[in-house]
Amino acid sequence: MAKSKLYLVEASMLPDVFLRVCEAKELLARGTVRTVAEATARAGISRSAYYKYKDSITPFRDVRRDRIVTMSLITQDRPGALSSVLTLFAEAGANILTINQSIPTNGVGVVTISFTAEDLRSGLDELRERLSALPTVVDLSVLAG
What we know:
CATH superfamily of the largest domain: ACT domain
Helix content: 25-40%
CATH topology of the largest domain: Alpha-Beta Plaits
Strand order of the largest sheet: 2-3-1-4
Number of helices: 6
């Protein structure tokens, strides 16, 4: 099988049908609609156009623009410790992408959180300071971003 060629193209340069296919795919992925028929009707395209192009068009996520940051936190093993951390992320306007939490040992656990920092209401430094000030956070480090 021949290797596919991929191109990065500004959305305004694409035929309208490609953008509408992406819209239909997003409606389905978010659960806004339940069927392809509903998605295509809302996007204003035929089902045949959707099926023709659905595997050939995918929105590009610009990692540089989205500024994905990964933090590792060591937290005390106490009820509400992770909840207080996540509350600060929400208050800061961070969009959390992944959360990985280890099973606590010796009274502490490791939590790794990846998030987009493009919409932070305050800077990354302020978020780090607020997280470090939590009584249940033992240590914090930025792994990437």
